């Protein structure tokens, strides 16, 4: 069982970049995090250190509390809180649990910066340096990653009026459901996710006959 990080190591984890997971610390601290499986050293210069999925979970558990359990079928029921950080930036998955605030120039700048940071994370963590397909962080944060791709693509998350996209967990591994009341907007969401490196299929919910997308990160 992995030893829990010391207080000093926890401070290094908490100070990691909220999107890329890039770490800053002394070499002994970084080496200790690597030994615990909470960080890895990038093979390319400048050989920076980044949080592993386990490191991200520890960081987020401290910032957000214990994660919610996965929900049921692919409809607006069970959800993963769509945070892409520690309160500095939160991707909006659609719904009442999204962070408050208007969609204005400041928000657009935050989304653009978060998306550029995610592309950089792809470049640095995909074995071939590719930025056209999701990386390991996205595979372990499916709702967050898909919501960020949609918001960065100019789509509007669902608000109190019910219009807009909603990204939700599904029982299927490496797949999220995207709901959008407007059929044309749903197809537009599919195009955006495909351009962001996701496999996307359109399906019908058997009980309600509502259309939704099932999206999973592309591997090649």
How would you sum up the global shape? elongated
SS-derived structural category: alpha+beta
Helix content: 25-40%
Order of helices and strands: HHEEHHHHEEHEE
Give the count of structural domains.
2
Span between termini = 32 Å
Count of helix runs = 7
Provide the residue-averaged pLDDT: 82
Major β-sheet annotation? 4 strands, antiparallel
Q: Which regions have little confidence, pLDDT < 50, spanning 5+ residues?
A: 64-88
Total beta strand runs: 6
> How large a portion of the residues is in β-strands, by DSSP E?
5-15%
Strand order of the largest sheet: 3-4-6-5
What is the rounded Rg?
Answer: 18 Å
Oligomer: single chain
Biased composition (Pro residues): 66-76
Region (Disordered): 59-82
Task: Tell me what you see in this structure.
By secondary structure, this protein is of the alpha+beta class. It folds into two domains: 7-63, no CATH class; 70-217, no CATH class. Helix content is 35%, strand content 14%. It has helices at 7-14, 27-35, 53-64, 105-125, 136-139, 142-152, 183-195, and strands at residues 39-41, 49-51, 165-169, 176-180, 198-204, 211-217. Helix 4 (105-125) crosses helix 6 (142-152). The longest helix has 21 residues, at 105-125. It starts with 6 loop residues before the first helix and ends with a strand.
Annotate the secondary structure layout.
Blueprint: H1 7-14, H2 27-35, E1 39-41, E2 49-51, H3 53-64, H4 105-125, H5 136-139, H6 142-152, E3 165-169, E4 176-180, H7 183-195, E5 198-204, E6 211-217
Helix pairs in contact: 4-6
């Amino acid at each position: 069982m992995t030893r829990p990080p010391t207080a000093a190591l926890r401070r290094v984890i908490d100070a990691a970049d909220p999107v890329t997971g890039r770490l800053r610390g002394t070499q002994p601290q970084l080496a200790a995090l690597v030994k615990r499986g909470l960080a890895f050293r990038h093979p390319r210069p400048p050989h920076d250190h980044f949080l592993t999925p386990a490191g991200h979970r520890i960081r987020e558990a401290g910032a957000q509390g214990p994660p919610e359990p996965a929900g049921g079928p692919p409809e607006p029921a069970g959800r993963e809180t769509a945070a892409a950080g520690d309160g500095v930036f939160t991707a909006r998955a659609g719904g009442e649990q999204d962070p408050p605030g208007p969609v204005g120039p400041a928000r657009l700048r935050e989304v653009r910066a978060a998306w550029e940071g995610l592309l950089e994370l792809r470049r640095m963590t995909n074995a071939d340096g590719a930025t056209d397909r999701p990386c390991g962080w996205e595979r372990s944060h499916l709702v967050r990653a898909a919501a960020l791709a949609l918001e960065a693509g100019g789509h509007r998350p669902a608000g109190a009026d019910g219009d807009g996209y909603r990204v939700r967990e599904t029982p299927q591994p490496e797949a999220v459901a995207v709901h959008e009341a407007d059929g044309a907007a749903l197809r537009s969401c599919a195009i955006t996710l495909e351009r962001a490196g996701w496999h996307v299929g359109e399906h019908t919910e058997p009980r309600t006959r509502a259309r939704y997308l099932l999206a999973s990160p592309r591997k090649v």
